[in-house]
Specification:
Blueprint lengths: L5 H12 L4 E7 L7 E8 L5 E8 L10 H13 L7 E4 L9 E5 L7 H6 L7 H16 L14 H15 L4 H14 L8 E3 L8 E4 L2 E5 L6 E3 L2 H7 L19 H12 L5 H27 L6 H6 L3 H12 L26 H16 L5 H38 L5 H14 L6 H19 L9
Antiparallel strand pairs: 1-2, 2-3, 3-5, 4-5, 6-9, 7-8
């Protein structure tokens, strides 16, 4: 669904909230690759109004709760003292609006880079690690018997789930296989505890923040029962630091400060190794989710340049995963110098590279200015075109180098994809365990080459 019927929305508000209502200031908010988010004002004839948000799904996504469950979760969280938007009503079939719910709009900022950068949040930033730790502790303390029915997903279950998703998508990722092996070997060593509510997407970007700090926790669609430290590991994944990579806890502060604040709020001490396990899992999880999102675009379920671009972000998570698994072998990738190539062609100039360059420049010069969803997607599109430019210039040499690396490791003179499939299967089966150093070096070189195209500036160590 790309549009929202304002008349149906008004009728739904009137029916559920006791109307009549008219809808004003309807706009779709930026972001939301997997879910649509619409802000609007519900206006009554007497002049009273409510600022509301409608969250709905464009389609079905693996691993997400249904909207009725999420609606009940938000109610339970509010009753348990967790800062969340108040839910107003769950959309029903007769409303003709799809699957979703309406909640109050909470004033504040959700865009991580603004929270981490703007002067308006300078006072809030030093408080956010502690506030987020206390919010996580409150979530994990909610009585399980007060929650709607949720899946129980412990570490072993989650590892198998994501291994299954990788197989279903059918793309070989040796770095992911290394991560899955590492996680599987350590999952049984995790501390045992009673299953607790896990938010599942507890991170910078899913918080509403004001000058006073944390105001609400959003996006509960991945909630389940399991190990609560999963939330803290996800919070520390490098992608959710948004450039402030030295601050492991959401870009706000240190992991040590997070664990200290969480212990103070929950009464539970968490070992660094426990947090590290879930950070490794979270990094792999985000890489697989990016692959899932790109697959949604490629299969035509939701055609979106944003989803397409996420497919090329997988290399970032692969790099971070390798760094977490083998920090002693980490060397920041050098920035590739992209020189224009004169590939053989029967066509007149501009060349394909020059045509792509012209469209990118148009987006950067004429479309990206300002705010809003169009500008956001223009920025994404410009980054995609820059990737294409770099791949046109670097691709042939990269392919030849990767073929030679895989030939040296596996002894198979086959196309790169076939050799990559063989490498991934060999890692999973344990057939290459005696060549760990060579395997890591080969996988790292492949990921570095992908980064040279997808994000050549992604060269800052995770630690």
């Amino acid at each position: 669904m790309a549009s929202l019927d304002v008349h149906r929305l008004a009728a739904a508000c009137s029916r559920h909230l006791g109307g009549p209502y008219e809808i004003d200031e309807l706009r779709r908010l930026s972001g939301g690759a997997s879910r649509e988010t619409w802000a609007f004002r519900a206006q009554r004839p007497d002049g009273s109004a409510a600022d509301l948000v409608f969250r709905r799904d464009p389609g079905t996504t693996i691993g997400q709760t249904d909207r009725a469950t999420e609606y009940l979760l938000l109610q339970a969280a509010a009753a348990g003292g967790v800062a969340v938007p108040a839910v107003r009503f769950l959309v029903e079939d007769e409303d003709g609006l799809g699957s979703g719910f309406v909640m109050d709009r909470v004033d504040g900022e959700t865009i991580p880079r603004k929270i981490l950068r703007d002067h308006e949040y300078a006072t809030a930033r030093p408080q956010l690690v502690g506030q987020c730790a206390h919010a996580a502790a409150a979530i994990h303390a909610l009585p399980v018997d007060a929650l709607p029915r949720l899946a129980h997903q412990d570490a072993t279950t989650l590892i198998e789930q994501f291994r299954g998703i990788i197989d279903m998508l059918g793309e070989p990722h040796p770095a992911f296989e290394l991560g899955l092996r590492w996680l599987s070997e350590r999952a049984t060593e995790l501390p045992r505890s009673e299953p607790a509510l896990v938010h599942g997407d507890f991170r910078n970007g899913n918080f509403i923040v004001g000058p006073d700090g944390l105001r609400a926790v959003l996006d509960w669609e991945l909630a389940h029962l399991g190990d609560p430290i999963e939330d803290l590991g996800w919070f520390c994944v490098k992608s959710w630091r948004f450039g402030q990579v030295q601050n492991e806890a959401g870009g706000f502060g240190s992991a040590a400060a997070l664990l200290a604040a969480y212990e103070s709020a929950s009464g539970r001490a968490v070992a660094e190794e426990h947090l590290h396990f879930w950070e490794v899992f979270g990094t792999l999880k985000w890489g697989v989710i990016c692959e899932m999102q790109a697959s949604s675009h490629l299969q035509g379920l939701v055609r979106s340049v944003e989803l397409a671009a996420l497919g090329r972000r997988i290399a970032e998570m692969e790099w971070d995963l390798l760094d977490l698994l083998d920090p002693d072998g980490f060397e920041p990738p050098s920035r590739a110098v992209v020189e224009p190539t004169a590939a053989a062609s029967m066509h007149d100039r501009p060349t394909a590279t020059e045509l792509v360059e012209s469209v990118r420049e148009y987006l950067e010069r004429d479309v990206m200015t300002g705010d809003g969803r169009v500008a956001f997607h223009a920025r994404v599109a410009a980054r995609v075109l820059a990737m294409v430019e770099r791949e046109l210039a670097l691709g042939p040499q990269q392919y030849a180098a990767e073929h030679q690396r895989l030939l040296s490791l596996l002894g198979t003179d086959a196309p790169v994809r076939d050799q990559t499939v063989k490498l991934a299967r060999g890692i999973r089966a344990g057939e290459l365990d005696d060549r760990r150093t060579d395997v890591f070096a080969t996988v790292r070189a492949a990921v570095q080459a992908k980064l040279a195209v997808s994000n050549p500036d992604y060269a800052v160590p995770a630690r």
